[in-house]
Amino acid sequence: MQTKLDDGKYLIAISDGMGSGKEAKKASSSAVKMLNRMLSSGFDKDTSLELINSSMYINSKEDSYATLDIAILDLYSGNMEFMKNGACPTFIKNKKDVTVVKSISLPARNFRQS
Asked: What is the pTM of this model?
């Protein structure tokens, strides 16, 4: 997903749902849509990620995960902020330098025991 936010920033996000097929697509689509709605409504980034994790946990009947890889670009200052939620490392190449951005959090999780 990519969209311009009301505060002059640009949001780019990608999510990977656990497994394959419809359920994986549903988990990743849900995570990205929730992120867009929350940030567009004025929630801060950390609160948005916490609410996404909680919502996915509450609303699922089975075990599933969705990672989030997020970049927010400030179109006025030119600064970019990266956020990761369980996603694999990101490699950013700038001329001859490579920076690695790693996640220290677990993926957004749906888990239910029967």
From this structure: 0.73
